[in-house]
Amino acid sequence: MAKHLKALIGPSILNSDLSKLYEESQKLLDNGADYLHLDVMDGHFVPNLTFGHPIVKCLRSKIKNAFFETHMMVSNPEQWISPMADAGVNQYTFHIEPVNDVEDVCRKIKENGMKVGVAIKPGTPVSEVEKYISLSDMVLIMTVEPGFGGQKFMENQMEKVKYLREHYPLLDIEVDGGVGPATIGCCADAGANMIVSGTAVIGSQDQAATIKLLRDTVIESIK
């Protein structure tokens, strides 16, 4: 069967009420989220600290079937591959910047039964991540500096997305940071098909309508 691009919306739960992580996550799924984007920060690679594999495992015990992507904003992504696989993560997305042997990390993720996502910060050229496309299932182009929610969208990052879409027509390309109804148009036009949206979805009066708007915009561009 020929692969074709799908529009997938994965809200980041970082901006939700983390004391009600399960309820907030389930609500997002009920409102049409295609997957959950779980931001893991170590206080080292980025200045913030969030949650780790024990919390992801607890969430998985309540939510059996949803697709979990962990966005590992950590200095040593290799350290958490096995624990996150054990916690029930489907896709392990890590930043290439702090890693010496990216190919080795990609291989270990696959060996642990997860999909591979490779991510770059705004200051990292797209050529750096291009080397690893053959080993990965998805590329994440950050549209803000990783580490904090609620930042302003960096439109200049769309050049990276355009480049990847032109050269890799069937690649899953994810964007994350400041993405919402006001910025989804340029993300979709550039060629992103996996959309992470935190504040815009979590804080929306009508999550389902916001998720639908994001998805419909991407579907239109894929057509």
Description:
By secondary structure, the protein is an alpha/beta fold. It has one domain: Aldolase class I (TIM Barrel). Helices cover 35% and strands 18% of the residues. The chain contains nine helices and eight strands. An eight-stranded parallel β-sheet has the order 1-8-7-6-5-4-3-2. Helix 6 packs parallel to helix 7 and helix 7 packs parallel to helix 9. It is globular. It starts with 7 loop residues before the first strand and ends with a helix. This is Ribulose-phosphate 3-epimerase. Pathway: Carbohydrate degradation; pentose phosphate pathway; D-xylulose 5-phosphate from D-ribulose 5-phosphate (non-oxidative stage): step 1/1.
Key phrases:
223 residues, 35% helix, cobalt, alpha/beta, eight-stranded parallel β-sheet, zinc, 8 strands, globular, carbohydrate metabolism, TIM Barrel
Strands, helices and their partners?
Elements: E1 8-11, H1 21-30, E2 36-41, H2 53-62, E3 68-73, H3 81-86, E4 91-95, H4 102-111, E5 115-120, H5 126-130, E6 138-142, H6 158-167, E7 172-176, H7 184-190, E8 194-197, H8 199-202, H9 207-222
Parallel strand pairs: 1-8, 2-3, 3-4, 4-5, 5-6, 6-7, 7-8
Helix pairs in contact: 6-7, 7-9
Pfam families: Ribul_P_3_epim
Binding site for a divalent metal cation: 37, 39, 71, 176
EC number: 5.1.3.1
